Amino acid sequence: MMIISTIQKFSLFLLSFCSLSITHKIAFFLSKIFFTKNSKKYHVTYKNLRACFPNKSKAWYLKKTKESLVEYAKSMLETPYVYRKSQKNFNRLINKVYSENLINDALGEKKGIIFMTPHHGSWETSGLYAASKIKTFTMYKPLRNKILDEFVFEGRQTMGSSLVETDNSGVKRLLKALRENYGIGILPDHTPKINQGIMSTFYNVPVNTTTLIYKLGKKNKVPIIYLFSERLMNSNGFNIFVGRVDRKFYDLNEKDAADFLNKIIEQLVDQNISQYLWSYERFRNRTGVEETIY
Q1: CA atoms of 203 and 77, how far apart (whole Å)
Q2: Does residue 5 carry a pLDDT above 90?
Q3: What are phi and psi of 105, to 5 degrees?
Q4: pTM surpassing 0.90?
């Protein structure tokens, strides 16, 4: 175990000094080795794409599945470099930020900010970018691998973000952060446990959806900013797209609010379908749905 741990730490250390170009090349080759047609991630990715885009051709599914798994590998291997770079010159990672003024406007309201960062593009970059604008608090579920857990836990705090438990105490800390005019970060496409979310649709497929953003934002009409960090071609860094959830969101009921947010995620995904985390079992823990996608 000691040898394995040492190898893991050394690998993460080496990756932190590899440029995006190098890590992305490694990711391309490793994805071909580990994400074959017999792998679980390949099957989940393929089935998710078929469910969400039922009218595409088989060739399209095969192409997008391969592309998505390469992008997933890139997101994993580039993370050490992104963490290290954020400690020194985070802006060197960013090519362009679209609609950054929306964050500045939200800061001026002094109600705190809810950052909505789906599993799309480089969500680690999105989280670090949010934390560079305002002190943020985000929920964190420990990883099973202790070495990776320590690495990610420390990395996500490089821009000053604080991580809280994924339980009631964590929710209370998020509420407190908003009252103190801080930011909080939430993954809107994380699948809740069964009976803990609300049924909505994602690309017309029934999906269990978190209600946390709605509950935290509704009372004080906290500004909700969504972020997508698109990985650029030829490893040229990232473009960050900023948007704000329309104020009519606060007047919706819980079900309509979930539908509203899922539509926003769809719009972000449509900008670059391959960079969404299709290998995640998004359509599980559902109620009132008999068939199983997986």
Answers
A1: 29
A2: no
A3: -65, -40
A4: yes
Token pair listed for 235: 């490893």
Contact 125, 238 (CB under 8 A): yes
253 three-class SS: coil
- CA torsion sign for 83, 32, 141, 176 is positive
Within the chain, strands assigned E span 94-98, 113-116, 136-139, 162-164, 183-186, 198-202, 205-209, 224-231, 238-244
Number of H helices and number of E strands within the chain? 11, 9
User: What does the chain come to in residues?
Assistant: 294
What Å distances lie between residue 109 and 84, 180, 181, 251, 265, CA to CA?
Answer: 32, 13, 9, 19, 25
Q: Assess contact for 184 and 174: CB atoms under 8 A.
A: yes
pLDDT tens-digit readout, 125-146: 999 999 999 999 998 888 888 8
**Chain centroid, CA 84 distance in Å:** 19
Strand pairing partners for 186?
Answer: 116
Provide the b/e sequence for 258-273 (b: ≥16 CB within 10 Å).
bbbbbebbbebbeebb
Residues 40-65 pLDDT 10s: 999 999 999 999 999 999 999 999 99
Condensed to tens digits (0 to 9), the pLDDT of residues 233-256 reads 999 999 999 999 999 999 999 999
111, 178 Cβ separation under 8 angstroms: yes
Of 126, 159, 124, 264, give the one whose Cα is nearest residue 202. Answer: 264
Residue 222 near residue 111 (C-beta atoms within 8 A) = yes
**3-state DSSP assignment of residue 193:** coil
Instruction: Please report which confidence band the pLDDT of residue 4 belongs to, taking 50, 70 and 90 as the band edges.
Output: low
Query: Cα-atom radius of gyration of the chain, to the nearest Å?
Result: 19
CB neighbours of 267 closer than 8 A, spacing ≥ 6? none
Closest CA to 105 of 261, 243, 253, 275: 243
